[in-house]
């Protein structure tokens, strides 16, 4: 499965990695694999056609800001283990971009929920009590400028290509 993602700066990935250490029994993302998903790209077409459709949908997309504002967790996840502990991200422009892509690509049944909640996953599974303790911590906001997007290959956990903003 492919997706269009926002690359996260080192400061965000470092924070996620540090917080993950307090969730030892959970699955933690390997270093360098933290991203912020915008939309999964699915369809019967080849990857190159999916990428073309996504690029067409984001024509004119300006750069924008994202801001990590805190730590939270999901317990009711559509697929995979829970809880999912994450860094919450705020960005009105990211929501608009997700909406543009959602008009072109259907939600992935059993994976995506109707409500888009931008986040950077810290860890999945493990103890709910530990998840609550990590989520109760205060962190400083981290704001960054988004000037590129990444097409991500979820099967191989690696980037396929990028697009610079403005698109």
TrEMBL record:
<keyword id="KW-0436">Ligase</keyword>
<protein>
    <submittedName>
        <fullName>2'-5' RNA ligase</fullName>
    </submittedName>
</protein>
<dbReference type="Pfam" id="PF13563">
    <property type="entry name" value="2_5_RNA_ligase2"/>
</dbReference>
<dbReference type="GO" id="GO:0016874">
    <property type="term" value="F:ligase activity"/>
</dbReference>
<dbReference type="InterPro" id="IPR009097">
    <property type="entry name" value="Cyclic_Pdiesterase"/>
</dbReference>
